[in-house]
Structures are given as C-alpha cells and as structure tokens.
Amino acid sequence: MRTRLAAALLAAALTPLTLTATAHAAPAAAPWDFNGDGRADLAIGAPGATVSGKAAAGAVSVVYGGTGGPKTSTRTLLTQNSAGIPGAAEADDAFGSALASADLDTDGYADLLVGVPGEDSYDTNNGTVTVVWGSASGLSGGRSLLSPFDTDYDRYGRTLAAGDFDGDGDPDVASGSTGPITLTLVHGPLTRTSSSSEASGSRNSWWSASAGVTHLSSGDVTADGHPRVVLHGRTTHDGAAATGLADLKIGNYNDWLQKLPGGFVSAVGDIDQDGHADIAVGNDRETSADPGGALGGKVTVVYGGPEGPDTGRAPLVLTQDTPGVPGAAEKSDRFGSDVALGDVNGDGHADLVVGTAGENASAGAVTVLYGSASGLTTKGSVSYTQNTSGVPGSSEAGDRFGERVTLTDVTGDRRADLSVAAPGENSGDGAVWFLRGTATGPTTSGSTSFGPATTGISTAGTPGYGTALNS
Predict the structure, then answer these.
(1) For residue 189, is the peptide bond before it cis, meaning its omega torsion is within 30 degrees of 0?
(2) Dist. CA 90–CA 51, nearest whole Å
(3) Which entry of 18, 26, 202, 371 is 20 to 30 Å from 385 by CA?
(4) In a 3-state reduction of DSSP, which class is residue 432?
(5) Integer Cα distance of 129 and 117 in angstroms
(6) pLDDT exceeds cutoff 60 at 12
(7) Among 275, 168, 170, which Cα is nearest to 219's?
(8) Are 106 and 24 in contact (CB under 8 A)?
C-alpha cells in the first residue's frame, strides 16, 4: 500500500568529498564493531550527564565486547570535552541523546554517530551530530557532521540512522529534527579529512513540524540491496503517532511515503528468513494518549515484501493479552516502549525483544518472542525483570527497566545478546544489563549490570544512563 502525500522537497549541496585511494581498501565493518574484533561493542548514551559542572551536557560510554560479554574495564568515555571531539561541553547540550553506527569511511572499523540536539550554534537548540572514528584501538577523534540547513530546523540529531540510503555504495546519515525541515540526509562518502558533505532536507504536510521526526530505523525491507528508512512523528491534523517507510533513493520520497501502523519506535530484521526484512512498530500509549494505542501498549509486526510492506499478509498485532505473551495488558504498562530484532538463538530467524518500561509502577520488564519460517510466534516467549532469578538488582518503582533494549552480538558467537537499559535506576542514574544469547534464548546465568560510575560518568544530577543504546 502506497500513500501519496503532499510534500515539498528542499535540497542543497556543498562540495562533495573526495575519497582517498585507500578509502575502500578494507571490507566495511558491521555496525557497532568499533575495534574490528568481530564483536559488537555497547554504546550507552547519558544525555543528562553533568560534565565539568555543566548540567545535562551529556556523555557516552562505549564498553567493548568480549567473549564473556561487555568488558567495563575496556571502555571509552566520550564528551564534548574529550580530546579530538568537536565542540565543548555546555549545559543542556544533551550529547548522547541518539546513537547510530556504520563504517562511514569504509576502513574496516565501524564509526559512531552521536546526536547533540541541544547544541547552540547558529541559533538556540539547532543541534549537531558528531562522528567518532573507529580503529584497531577503538574510538578516537571526531568531526561534526555539518548540514546546510542550520537555520531551518531545531534539535538536529535528536534521532539518527546510518546506511546506504541513496544506493550509491557509500554509507549515508539520516537525522531527524523539528522545524521546517524534519529529516536531513547527509550523503556519503564521509571521511576524516573534510567537513564538507552533500545533503538534502525534506518536510511534508503529513508530519507535524513541531513534533518533527522522533525516531528512525532502517533495513532492507524490499531485498533490493539498499535499506529503506522507517520514520516516526506525529500527524499534523490530530497529533496521532505517524509512521512511514521511505525510499531515500527517490528524490521526492515524501510523495511515495508508505504508511505503516502508527507508533513511536521500530526495529527492522528478517523474522521469517525470506530475504525481506520485517518491521516491528512499538506504540506504548493508551488510546487516551494516542488513537493508535492500546490498553497497556502494543507492538505491530509488518512483514516485508518486494514492494515494501507485504500487502498480502496481515500485520501481527501483539499485546500482553495476546495468547502466549507473558503478563496481562494493564493501564500504563507501556508494552512497546522499545523494540529490537536480532537472532538470539542462532537459528537464522530474527527474534523480537519488547520493552515494557511501565510494568509494575514503572519498575519495567522485557519480553522475548521468537522468529520462525512462518513468522513471529508467541510459543516459548519469556519475560524478564530485575526480580527474575539471576538478573542483578531488584525491581523498584520508577526504574523503567526496558525503556531501551538492543540485540547485538557482543560475545562474537554469532548469536545476538540482550542488553537492557533502565534510565530511571537509582533515582535517575540509570544502568544497563547484559544477558548472553544461547541456543535456547537469553540466559540469566552470568548476567551482569553496570551504571554510569563504573564507566566514568558522573552521577551528579540525573544522567539517565541508557537513555540511548545501540539500535
């Protein structure tokens, strides 16, 4: 199903970058593998962190992967006061509000993108994006990802996605914002030696400019070799959650935006292993807060096909009242506060993790559901909280365990491991939990947890450690 939307495309270009002769010498690294060791690393955003006395300047901890899980002793702390990182830590910059990763300079090491939506430059809160470069020794050095639309948006970098969106072979960066321009696409190639880049910006009459683009995800839904982008925002006419699938290879993609079930977050992965990535959309709102919501929240799985969403296959709608899903749908549970797709058990099918950050007075929970050749199944689904045997800590009101979830192979065994963030832990300090993936799903045996102080971030104020996590 395609929905034609009235839109105006704004575009501008700076001098394109010129790649050096060795820029494509190494195979592009998988996202999040910053040191090229074959294991995903964990990037953890704490946008409320105090840095050098500046409240909410923001920080990011990168904890490198190992055979036993994330190694907190091997880490990189990033702020705008870090050597080689552009800018300076200032109050309310919110460095680390959004994170994304791709091998932007195709040197064999994944690079990190950090959103800084509170940065002031040409005007207040127009925002910026920082690139931090990967290497054999991890992350170091950076550049700002400049855009020509500084006065035409606000809070640039509030959400990020990376991939070859225009199909030219070079990784690109998409950034959501508010204001006249709600999505900016910075075209690759991107290198360390130049801050110039070619960019295009867009707006459309379906999206509320004041709400802007609030979340981005991406994946190869059509199986044609280049990823589509899932955009989230709010409709202009009634403020309802708006979700669309865009092909950024099309210059006027807004005219061909494919409408998806409304939600606030999404993840993309191949659940049924048919070659087409599928889309899980989370809407954690009650119907009183969003027309597309549900009691306790819901997740809708849209299966992919050659033209985008597979119109011959009904979307799967899940709530905690769905047979086989643990728990029960209760007001303010926030089932769908976050979603992630990855192959936890190594059977070749992407599995789904759903955050339920409002469960039990916002103590929080996460639910794992498994993929199969026929699609997502509730058979064998399981829920985890901080009260689950083997999970460190204890469930407390306001922790928001499951506010952010991610499935990445931290151990290098070709199974996705589960990482869960609870930004409300310890009165807003926040914390992250790690559960290793096995042939039978995530295991609590050997699970670990750590907070901001463990990785060098101040606990002054409310850092909100885990507000952003690998996605």
Answers:
(1) yes
(2) 8
(3) 371
(4) strand
(5) 8
(6) no
(7) 275
(8) yes
Over residues 307-351, the pLDDT tens digits come to 999 999 999 999 999 999 999 999 999 999 999 999 999 999 999
Q: Give the integer Cα–Cα distance in Å for 326 and 335.
A: 11
**Is 241 within 8 Å of 285 (Cβ atoms)?**
yes
Model's pTM, two decimal places?
0.93
Amino acid identity, position 387: N
Residue-wise pLDDT for 374-420, tens only, equals 999 999 999 999 999 999 999 999 999 999 999 999 999 999 999 99
| Sequence-ordered list of residues with C-beta below 8 angstroms from that of 349, at least 6 positions apart, any chain | 270, 271, 272, 273, 343, 370, 371, 372, 373
Residue the block writes with tokens 């270009």: 13
Taking residue 195's Cβ as centre, other Cβ atoms within 10 Å add up to 15
The tokens of 274 are what?
Answer: 């048919």
**Tokens at residue 421, please?**
């963030």
Cα distances from 56 to residues 153, 178, 458, 465, in angstroms, run 21, 20, 11, 12
What is the rounded (10 degree) CA torsion for 317, 320, 326, 330?
170
Round to whole Å and give the CA distance between 93 and 58. Answer: 7
Contacts of 419 (CB under 8 A, 6+ apart): 42, 70, 405, 406, 407, 408, 410, 432, 433, 434, 435, 469, 470
